[in-house]
């Protein structure tokens, strides 16, 4: 590539965070995220409210990203945007804006698979971030996805196992809701778990395929456990919150690690990465790092700011696609159920 500086604008709007980022040759110059607080009152994301908030946020967020990068928008070489998967109304806002700006500036458009971008966040140019070699396994865990993906190169990915029902992020958030904790409850379970004993209560782990997941039965088991104990003691949750959270988190992390162990055994690949919002969980990070010593794995853990939905991961995916001249047609449409191994 002959150009000295390749500036890519990334736009992310798959769920409830509006984000824009500018990257220069794979290095993040800015990464602006506007969160939507309105969903807290409803205990979860309301799609219609999310799309309206994206409409309000997208122009100022993109403008801030360009300003913080200290460049002129005319210096941009391409615009990368999230095509899917995600909430359709939210995706349409980002897709429409990206297309309009692409046409206005006369620069290429790059459609990005949101789940691929979570994985490729590992390749952002950061001094202290190790980049996994190909092939590697990536445990992709978020509020909407739980998958083990074999990554052979930047754009060749194969799903080896995935959840049969609910995602791990949903299991965390629904468990928190059962305990009366506010949304999003996953980070709160992590917080209280650090003060509790993970062996206090035992929950049954679901039995599914070697590399597949299931969390609906676990959620039901936690609900019945809480209901039974609250009937006997109305203060049960309040008196035992730390131990309950620690036991729930321990069970979920054990399920994830069991499947990773199976995947390593089946594939022989010992380079293991994690990606997605739930990869910010402290217990998952700790157990994965321990596996380096105990199992001889090489593990790759992204920086916190690149785990949750953000435009930097869209930008790095766009940059890698730009290097391969992999551009998108202006007629490319948003796709709510785009698969991780889709083009």
TrEMBL record:
Name of the protein in its database record: tRNA N6-adenosine threonylcarbamoyltransferase
Residues reported to bind substrate: 140-144, 173, 186, 190, 281
Alphabetical list of SUPFAM superfamilies matching this protein: Actin-like ATPase domain
Boundaries of every Gcp-like domain copy: 27-315
Cellular component, GO annotation: cytoplasm
Compartment(s) where it occurs, according to its Swiss-Prot or TrEMBL record: Cytoplasm
Function statement: Required for the formation of a threonylcarbamoyl group on adenosine at position 37 (t(6)A37) in tRNAs that read codons beginning with adenine. Is involved in the transfer of the threonylcarbamoyl moiety of threonylcarbamoyl-AMP (TC-AMP) to the N6 group of A37, together with TsaE and TsaB. TsaD likely plays a direct catalytic role in this reaction.
EC number: 2.3.1.234
Sequence similarity: Belongs to the KAE1 / TsaD family.
UniProt keyword list: Acyltransferase, Cytoplasm, Iron, Metal-binding, Transferase, tRNA processing
Keyword Acyltransferase: yes
Domain of life: Bacteria
Cofactor: Fe(2+)
Keyword field contains Metal-binding: yes
InterPro entries: ATPase_NBD, Gcp-like_dom, KAE1/TsaD, Peptidase_M22_CS, TsaD
Amino acids binding Fe cation: 114, 118, 309
């Amino acid at each position: 590539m002959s150009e000295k500086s390749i500036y890519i604008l990334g736009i992310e709007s798959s769920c409830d965070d509006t984000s824009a980022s500018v990257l220069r040759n794979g290095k993040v110059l800015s990464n602006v995220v506007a969160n939507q607080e309105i969903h807290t009152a409803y205990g979860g994301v309301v799609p219609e409210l999310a799309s309206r908030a994206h409409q309000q946020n997208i122009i100022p967020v993109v403008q801030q990203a360009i300003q913080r990068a200290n460049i002129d928008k005319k210096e941009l070489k391409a615009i990368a945007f999230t095509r899917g998967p995600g909430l359709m109304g939210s995706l349409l806002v980002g897709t429409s804006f990206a297309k309009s700006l692409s046409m206005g500036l006369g620069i290429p458009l790059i459609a990005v698979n949101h789940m691929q971008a979570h994985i490729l966040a590992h390749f952002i140019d950061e001094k202290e971030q190790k980049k996994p070699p190909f092939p590697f396994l990536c445990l992709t865990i978020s509020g909407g996805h739980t998958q083990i993906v074999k990554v052979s190169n930047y754009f060749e990915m194969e799903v080896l196992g995935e959840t049969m029902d609910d995602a791990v992020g949903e299991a965390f958030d629904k468990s928190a809701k059962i305990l009366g904790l506010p949304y999003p409850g996953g980070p709160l379970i992590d917080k209280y778990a650090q003060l509790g004993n993970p062996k206090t209560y035992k929950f049954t782990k679901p039995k599914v395929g070697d590399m597949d997941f299931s969390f609906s039965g676990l959620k039901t088991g936690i609900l019945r456990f809480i209901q039974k104990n609250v009937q006997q003691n109305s203060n049960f949750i309040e008196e035992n919150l730390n131990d309950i959270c620690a036991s729930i988190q321990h069970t979920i992390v054990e399920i994830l690690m069991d499947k990773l162990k199976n995947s390593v055994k089946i594939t022989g690949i010992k380079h293991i990465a994690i990606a997605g919002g739930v990869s910010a969980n402290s217990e998952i990070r700790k157990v994965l790092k321990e596996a380096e010593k105990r199992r001889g794995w090489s593990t790759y853990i992204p920086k916190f700011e690149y785990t949750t939905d953000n435009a930097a991961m869209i930008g790095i995916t766009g940059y890698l696609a730009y290097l391969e001249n992999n551009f998108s047609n202006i007629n490319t449409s948003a796709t709510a159920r785009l698969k991780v191994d889709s083009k």
